[in-house]
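Extended Data, panel c. Modelled sequence:
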Amino acid sequence: MNINRLWCLSIALAVAVALGMPAAVAQGTKASSEGPKTASVSVGENRKVEGTITGREGDRLTVRPAATETDVVVKLSSFTQIVEKKANPLRRARKYQASHLVPGLTVEVEGRGDSDGALVADKIRFTNDDFKTARGVDVRVSPFEQNARRMSGQIEEMGAVSNAARGGAKAAQETADKAHDRITRLDDYEAVHSVAVRFKTGSAVLSAEARKSLDELAQQAKSRKGFVIEVAGFASSEGSMAFNRRLSRQRAEAVSEYLAEQHDIPLRRIMVPTGYGVSHPVADNSTRAGRQENRRVEVRVLVSRGMAAPASGSPPSSEKQ
């Protein structure tokens, strides 16, 4: 490694930081300032927009209509109705919360323009199938973790340059190796807490004991960084295979909805709830006690090893189960 070159690079970076400029500018590179175009809605204009949510910041959504490259900014208000776009006219439409408006969800927005050129939503509608698809996006590549990956790399790179500039070429290489190891562990998860929630025969209703267990698990999860929650439903051998598979999925969804609605766990943190039917029994289905053990939902809190690792790059300690 050329120490003189690193010394010059560190001086350039230091000047760039002192002047409040990004390192890329200090090295003579230019970043493009162009971003996606945004369509403006006239004040008081009634408009209906159908498209996909591409971003969200507080009560402001970015919606991109199909087959266009122009976004529409949608504002939520206390009067915004968020309801299901249902196909069956004989069934009452579900109501949703603002927290259910996640990136990737296809929506239909009706509202009026305000003075900022945004569309103030009176009603937002989407199908339940589209909602399930949107919340099933792989949480392991969430924007939060992408940002953590980028920031971790930038911090460790600056540390490596600084060490090398002071003549510590060996120390700089070790720091770079530790940074690389930490980044590669961002997508490596370990289970730090788990519970098994049990149900009555043919039921997907959470008992008081089950809710208490989920309350404790939610508190454990919120105290962690970089966590996701895995939810898997199972059934005993009573009933047909199709019935048990559907019932196990309903049990898993009941657990996921409870965590999201009662504890504000972001949907991007909950992996797609899956029903496994009668597969993977933990006890003998030929006995009453065994069937009771098999009517369950297994819930696990998983934590990214890279997020849990200290800045020095040493491996995180595992929590005993």
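The CA atoms of residues 191 and 266 lie 19 Å apart. This feature is highlighted in the accompanying rendering.
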